[in-house]
Amino acid sequence: MASPRFRDTGRFVRRTAPAKVLKPRTLNDLMRCFDPANRVPTPIRVRGSGSASTDCNDVVTGTIVETTGLDRILGIDNYYHTVTVQAGVRLGALVSELARQGLELDGNLDQMERTVGGAVASPCMGPGIGSRSTYLSSQAISMKLVTPAGKLMKVTQQQKHLLNTVRLSYGMLGAIYEVTLRVRPIATFSAKHRSMDIDTFANVVDRLASRDVGMKFCLLPHKDRVYLDLRRYEDSPGNAWDTPWKIKDWGESTVLPNVFRSLNRVMPIPSVKYRLMDGISAATHGLVNTRLVRNGNNVTASGRRRRHKARNVLDSAWCFPATDFSLVIKAFRDFCEQTLEGAGYRSDLPIIGHRVARDTSAVLSPSFDEPLVALQVSSTVDKGWEDFVIDLAQFAENWGGTPLFNQSRAMRAEYGKQIYANRLAFFRKIREQLDPQKRLLNPFLAQCFE
Ligand SMILES: Cc1cc2nc3c(=O)[nH]c(=O)nc-3n(C[C@H](O)[C@H](O)[C@H](O)COP(=O)(O)OP(=O)(O)OC[C@H]3O[C@@H](n4cnc5c(N)ncnc54)[C@H](O)[C@@H]3O)c2cc1C
Predict the structure, then answer these.
(1) What confidence category does residue 238 fall into, taking pLDDT thresholds of 50, 70 and 90?
(2) What's the CA gap between 375 and 325, in Å, rounded?
(3) Is the minimum distance from the CB of 57 to ligand 1 under 6 angstroms?
(4) CB within 8 A of 283, min separation 6: which ones?
(5) Closest Cα to atom 37, ligand 1: which residue?
(6) Is 124 in the pocket of ligand 1 (CB under 6 A)?
(7) Sheet holding 44-47: strands in order across?
(8) Nearest-CA neighbor of 315 among 270, 231, 398, 374?
(9) Of 126, 116, 69, 74, which Cα lies nearest the Cα of 303?
(10) What CA–CA distance (Å, rounded) separates 16 from 440?
(11) CB 342, CB 418: distance < 8 Å
């Protein structure tokens, strides 16, 4: 019999309607949600914009505390380059406000509908340039959170170990209410694009992944194509125009999913349909990225589209050791081909990858021990997806993949424990001290963190 998975499979339909959703608008409201005297049904799960791909932000019975009403930017310090915000502020709103003052977040992040709380409590990562630009949580220098006992707790840089534990804590230590982030003056980077086959990419990827460049790539495994995007800070990179990045964001996050959804409805012959889709992806990529997007900064590259809902796209992501990635990428191409042949499933959207620098700023940092490369598979096709993510999880296990508790669908709990090992044991001890009654543990997280 197959071993149990850390996420529902195609045989079990995920229930999304929770017993109760609370939407606090003030600190007092938030504290009331957690105060044991109020007997709020447990488990309690904190939710930001709800964009995570796993059940880390969900409960079937219990309570969801949704933070999007806590949406005030409390202060920007242009001298010390910090910003203090409530946890429900959307990344897009924050990026826009910072840009007005000539500042930006460190790290090439997109998905601007996410909340700061969600993005600090779970890995929110992009192809950051340099070694400290991978996760937004690394930039969090102090936080206030409401503990499972309903008390306010402040954590600062002076409490290094506690701060490192609260970063990427997936809402298991309490609800983050307020965050102070390090920010910086807007800096322009150059973006260079290359198109190549997968074998050529495999020959260069190890070297690139060990450098401090921002490396992102778009992979079309069935077309044997990689579109590589390398970002570097240059002495005189030129102007970072906003419009090309807006077109890119619109093309990639709106046009492609919508066109592919329509094609999935009207085109009955899979081989023709997929050829068409890969052609459209390649053309979009060639036109938008290679021709239009040359220079950018973390404001223009974020797209800043003010979606207030997570994209209606299926998604599962895993990270792989950068040192082995030249082998992993070829094996992944074979895996995609075999899955299409055997199970008849493939993702229709391009697969996105990026370098994840080594980062020890959080106890549960996926890249605590070594640099990684993230592979993010997205699709608009429901039928067959749940079985596909199980196969993908098996592939990832075979190749030493590191799971993300917010993004790696169908991960086996035993495998997660093995990968995060001692750090998970340390996190568990802190969690047990702050939440001895397990009020914040849903069944999904309990499999690893109990
Ligand atoms: C199509 C798609 C693409 C994606 N692309 C990327 C990507 O490129 N890069 C990337 O990093 N991620 C990506 N993700 C994953 C997702 O965007 C991240 O998990 C995101 O950081 C979550 O932010 P959120 O506000 O939506 O939080 P939620 O999904 O609501 O919550 C995520 C976790 O944080 C906890 N949490 C939320 N708010 C708080 C709070 N105030 N206090 C304590 N805990 C809290 C929740 O309990 C949960 O465990 C993608 C997801 C999808 C579906």
Answers:
(1) low
(2) 10
(3) yes
(4) none
(5) 118
(6) yes
(7) 20-22, 63-66, 44-47
(8) 374
(9) 126
(10) 18
(11) no
What are the pLDDT digits (tens) for 327-346? 999 999 999 999 999 999 99
Task: Give the C-alpha separation, 229 to 250, whole Å.
Answer: 18
The more confident residue out of 283 and 449 is 449
Q: Examine the pLDDT at 7 and tell me if it is beyond 60.
A: no
Q: Which amino acid is at 83?
A: V
Residue reference for tokens 């493939």: 346
User: Distance from the CA of 118 to the center of ligand 1, in angstroms?
Assistant: 5
Alpha helices by DSSP H, listed for 35-123, are: 91-100, 116-121
405-415 per-position pLDDT tens digit: 999 999 999 99
CA distance 364 to 356: 14
- Element holding 45 (H helix, E strand): strand 44-47
Ligand 1 contact via 170 beta carbon (within 6 Å): yes
Query: Residue 238: which residues within 8 A CB-CB, separation 6 or more?
Result: 188, 190, 294, 295
Domains of the chain: 73-185 (3.30.465.10), 189-403 (3.40.462)
Top-confidence range, 4-13, 179-188, 263-272, 302-311: 179-188
With a CB cutoff of 8 Å and minimum separation 6, the contacts of 321 are: 328, 370, 371, 372, 373, 400, 402
Q: Name the residue at shortest CA distance from atom 27 of ligand 1.
A: 118
Mutate to test the pocket of ligand 1, among 305, 407, 449 (most ligand atoms within 8 A of CB): 407
pLDDT above 80 for 27: yes
Sign of CA dihedral 172, 174, 176, 182: negative
- The partner residues of 191 in beta bridges, in order of sequence, read 231
Q: From the CA of 47, give the closest atom in ligand 1.
A: 30
| DSSP result, 191-215 | EEEEEE-HHHHHHHHHHHHTSSSEE
Ligand 1: distance of its center to the CA of 270 in Å? 33
Class of residue 327 by CB neighbours under 10 A (exposed 0-12, middle 13-18, buried 19+): middle
Distance of alpha carbon 320 from alpha carbon 366, whole angstroms: 10
Given ligand 1 and candidates 53, 94, 111, which is best to mutate, with the most ligand atoms within 8 Å of its CB?
111
Mutate to test the pocket of ligand 1, among 377, 406, 449 (most ligand atoms within 8 A of CB): 406
CB 67 within 8 A of CB 58: no
Distance 396 CA to ligand 1 centre (A): 21
